Amino acid sequence: MPRQSSGRSTSRRNLQTGAKPAQHRQVVLHIALEYIEPPIWRRVRVPENYTLHQLHRVLQLVFSWLDYHLYSFEIGNRRFERPSRESEAEDATAFTR
């Protein structure tokens, strides 16, 4: 027999503790590729606490790329890359906003 709705709105809660899931702030990024016509861009929403490495993974997905190339992020005069013994850049897995 189908279950009847009580008419009350319910929020998502942890079934074991009854607590609401933690809410993380998110940022919306407009990402555009340079030197390409017509413009190619994506708008993505990611958690505020994502590392640059996690952002790299998001970019791979939204642009349908296959992660064939090394990457780096430049912020001011700082450069961040995937951790490597040969790299002189900072660790992209450790940097968050």
Account of the protein in words:
This protein has a domain of 66 residues. The longest helix is centred in the middle third of the chain and has 11 residues. The protein is an alpha+beta fold. The chain contains one helix and five strands. Strands 3-4-5 form a three-stranded mixed β-sheet, with no helix packed on it. It has a two-stranded antiparallel ribbon with strand order 1-2. A hairpin with an 8-residue loop joins strand 1 and strand 2.
Strand percentage lies at: 15-25%
H/I helix tally: 1
- 3D shape: globular
Count of strand segments = 5
Main sheet, how many strands, which sense, barrel? Answer: 3 strands, mixed
Helix content: 10-25%
Report the oligomer: single chain
Q: Over all CA atoms, what is the radius of gyration? A: 20 Å
Distance between the termini: 51 Å
Q: What is the N-to-C order of secondary-structure elements (H for helix, E for strand)?
A: EEHEEE
- Averaging pLDDT over every residue, what do you get? 81
Low-pLDDT sequence parts:
5-11
By secondary-structure content and strand pairing, the structural class works out as alpha+beta
Spatial sequence of strands, sheet with the most strands? 3-4-5
